[in-house]
């Protein structure tokens, strides 16, 4: 049964991360518009990444903040990932990507898919004197690095990629809004900010009236602060987002 038949949904993830969710939504009958709100690019200075990968075996644990970090690192890995080097990730999307890349020992939160959830995992508690490397994009939250350092970890932070604003302009955004939009999937607070910063007055009002599907409360809070009137919180991961969207559009309407 094509639960989402007749609906036009926007998926705003970076192109490299959107294919799985798009396929699920299309299989459920939706027309999907890929509209990346973040572009993933190499770091300005690749030397620190290259140096870390040349001696990756020196670390006791590698932390990847996103699937993009995994892709950036494994694209430049000079040798197979060391079998005895565990990988820590913050969500199911990264866990699946790490597994697909051949990583055998993966630490991932069981319930809360963010930095706070990862920090609650048993294997993240006793890190005094351990050498850790964090692979991430430019900027980002400092909660995880700070907490790991407070636990005594010897931390190396590597910018494996950089996030850039979307390439489309206001005219393209207005054209897509005119073509119809029944819901927008937003996967990061930064992406939400890019979308609303791009909008002019007319587009801003249209965006604030749309339905947003987000996998984390922090993204929902960002959208509400930007004026969004209807934000639906889904579970994490492609299947969790699909389930939340299907549930929204099939639940009985209140008269």
TrEMBL record:
Keywords: Lyase, Methyltransferase, Porphyrin biosynthesis, Transferase
Tetrapyrrole biosynthesis uroporphyrinogen III synthase domain mapped to chain residues: 21-230
Reactions that this protein is recorded to catalyse: hydroxymethylbilane = uroporphyrinogen III + H2O
Pathway: Porphyrin-containing compound metabolism; protoporphyrin-IX biosynthesis; coproporphyrinogen-III from 5-aminolevulinate: step 3/4
Keyword rRNA processing in annotation: no
UniProt GO BP: methylation; protoporphyrinogen IX biosynthetic process; uroporphyrinogen III biosynthetic process
UniProt xrefs under InterPro entries: 4pyrrol_syn_uPrphyn_synt_sf, 4pyrrol_synth_uPrphyn_synth, UROS/Hem4
Gene Ontology molecular function terms on file: methyltransferase activity; uroporphyrinogen-III synthase activity
Methyltransferase in keyword set: yes
Domain of life: Bacteria
EC number(s) given by UniProt: 4.2.1.75
UniProt cross-references to SUPFAM superfamilies, sorted A to Z: HemD-like (SSF69618)
Family: Belongs to the uroporphyrinogen-III synthase family.
Function: Catalyzes cyclization of the linear tetrapyrrole, hydroxymethylbilane, to the macrocyclic uroporphyrinogen III.
Name this protein carries in UniProt: Uroporphyrinogen-III synthase
Organism expressing this protein natively: Iodobacter fluviatilis
Origin organism lineage: Bacteria, Pseudomonadati, Pseudomonadota, Betaproteobacteria, Neisseriales
